[in-house]
Write a structure and sequence with these properties.
Layout lengths: L1 E2 H9 L3 H9 L3 E3 L2 E2 L6 E2 L5 E3 L5 E5 L3 E6 L5 H5 L6 E2 L8 E7 L2 H12 L4 E9 L6 E3 L3 E4 L5 E4 L15 E9 L2 E8 L6 H8 L20 E8 L2 E4 L4 H4 L11
Parallel strand pairs: 9-16
Antiparallel strand pairs: 1-4, 2-3, 2-5, 6-7, 7-9, 8-9, 10-15, 10-16, 11-14, 12-13, 14-15, 16-17
Length: 255
Amino acid sequence: MEKAYKLLALKLGISNNKAKELIDSGLVSVGGKRLEVARRDLPLNTEFKVIEDKVEVLFKDDKILAINKPVGVESYSLQDRFEGYKLLHRLDKDTSGVLLLSNDEAFMKLAKQEFKEERVTKNYLALVDGNLKEAIEVTKPIGTKKGFKAQSFIKSHMSPKDLEYKNAISKFRPLQFLDSETLVLADILTGRTHQIRVHLASIKHPIVGDIIYGKTKSNRLKLHAFSIKLLDYEFKAPINLQAEFHKDAMSSLKI
């Protein structure tokens, strides 16, 4: 037995640090499943598969860079791939979609103020358990327990008392019914940790593949940051819904 990152380094002829970075970025699988722990002990004859390390650039000018973040990749690891650029916001590791960076200090300051003042429009696509029959707005305050793996809670008599609960507003609209699941458009007016996930779970429609707030297992968290509007910019990140979410999902979106 040997540590996964050391075995990978030997097989690929790369440094231990590079091997660990590949695993931490969600780009390595074993037996068809993503390898999540770089220090996991594995047999010496383990066969690794490394996903092609490419990130789609949606737009780039002298102020902003928009990319289509792959699922399973940490936002901060993508920042390291674009020299001189810094994140304007972040997406959870298991969420795919449009992610913004900048290399202009003045623009960065202005953009971060827009996020802070909650003047940025963000739309997500989610596949949820059950049939969400009609559009709904959820305004339940959210508190987050920080740590190695953050977890958020809806304010209630049963939730932790030592958290700061902040205002949170999410709007959900059903787009397509898919058997016992629903393709949903989510519009969030605030930016709390795991906001979409915890708000959907609170109305009994957790996201498929959400192992923290739901129960339905899948090959990925079915959540994609579809579009974002920031200042004079608007970006959309394409996704193959039939491949990523559901085989019968619509092939084109009219949003």
